[in-house]
Write a structure and sequence with these properties.
Blueprint: H1 3-14, E1 42-49, E2 52-59, E3 66-67, E4 75-81, E5 87-94, E6 101-108, E7 115-118, E8 121-126, E9 132-138, E10 151-158, E11 164-166, E12 175-180, E13 186-194, E14 197-205, E15 211-213, E16 219-223, E17 229-235, E18 238-243, E19 258-262, E20 267-274, E21 280-287, E22 301-306, E23 312-314, E24 323-328
Antiparallel strand pairs: 1-2, 1-24, 2-3, 4-5, 5-6, 6-7, 8-9, 9-10, 10-11, 12-13, 13-14, 14-15, 16-17, 17-18, 18-19, 20-21, 21-22, 22-23
């Protein structure tokens, strides 16, 4: 038996993950490295072409790309799919410069039945049962900022009644990258320059004033479907994965943190999202650029990584500022 095969066998027996050993891949592998055709889920993402942002749906193997918005003059971005895969929440930018507006919408996954949820709002996140959408409002309704942290408050939209309620903690601010925990009890968020924090990640109890730091350095924490693991961007060039237990403080321990993907400097990786079966992760990758929603990122593409091996490849190749992938269950 070759030494590499023997080492891999020992790692498997001991329960050590491939990416924990440092066998990560700094560049995207050829498409033939992963059999993505067996993945039954599609992805939706934002893309910029012809001076306009639109939402596209694509198969996991990169085939079947379709523009579901195709609206010149309107810029649709930041898609978040409902747990049943039938609806998508997203933001729409209109206007230019400081008079630009960003509003929150919902529509069917095929692009029909578009409805306004809330003006001057962003960063939607679905509750696990699909009834509520958590979101934040722009820090100012008079002067536009595309900075993710330029937000205030935390709000909940009821998809059954259409009612909007504010979280009881009125001091929440500078939240972004919202994500609802699979148990439905907490909303996680990155905080930048607000609530007494310089930069951290917190979990917010949906019902009361409780919030606490997660023990994560970086941004954009995302739960796996089971709620027992979390992935996040440790930096612009590295993703990490760790065990998480929201009953503990902090819920993420340093001893379980593992490197998942790390790339070469000069490029960036962002917007990681677990597949519904927990076997893959989608993310954005490209040369140094503006990863913000609506930020220009020429050369960026959507990628898929296999959780068990750390192998990853690009599923788009047009480089049309492709960002914010979200799996469709």
């Amino acid at each position: 038996m070759k030494r590499t095969s023997f080492t891999a066998l020992i790692m498997l027996i001991l329960g050590i993950s491939v990416f924990a050993s440092g066998n990560y891949y700094p560049k995207p592998l050829p498409n033939s490295s992963l059999d993505l055709s067996r993945i039954k889920y599609k992805l939706i993402y934002e893309s910029y072409s012809n001076k306009n942002w639109d939402l596209h749906i694509i198969n996991a193997d990169g085939t079947g790309k379709k523009n579901i918005t195709n609206t010149p003059g309107l810029n649709e971005m930041y898609p978040k799919v409902s747990p049943n895969g039938k609806k998508v929440a997203f933001v729409v930018d209109t206007g230019e410069g400081r008079t630009r507006k960003r509003d929150l919408y919902i529509m069917d996954i095929d692009g029909d039945d578009r409805q306004l949820i809330s003006k001057d709002s962003r960063q939607p996140a679905w509750s696990p049962d699909g009834r509520y959408i958590a979101f934040v409002k722009a820090a100012s309704s008079r002067r536009f900022s595309k900075e993710s942290w330029a937000t205030k408050g935390l709000y909940f939209y009821d998809t059954r009644t259409g009612n909007i309620t504010e979280h009881p903690n009125k001091k929440l601010e500078h939240l972004y990258n919202l994500y609802w925990s699979p148990d439905g009890q907490y909303i996680t968020a990155t905080v930048l320059g607000g609530m007494g924090f310089r930069h951290t990640n917190i979990a917010i109890n949906k019902e009361n004033m409780e919030f606490f730091q997660m023990g994560i350095i970086g941004c954009r924490p995302e739960f796996d479907p089971s709620g027992t693991k979390v992935a996040w961007g440790r930096s612009d060039i590295e993703f990490k994965i760790a065990d998480i237990d929201l009953k503990k403080r902090p819920p993420v321990s340093n001893k379980t943190k593992e490197r998942f993907v790390r790339i070469l400097k000069g490029h960036e990786i962002y917007h990681i999202d677990w597949s519904p079966d927990g076997k893959y992760a989608a993310f954005s990758y490209g040369p140094d650029a503006d990863q913000e929603v609506g930020g220009m990122a020429p050369g960026w593409n959507i990628c898929i990584a296999e959780i068990s091996t750390g192998k990853w490849t690009m599923i788009t190749t047009d480089g049309n500022h492709n960002k914010e992938p979200d799996w469709i269950p």
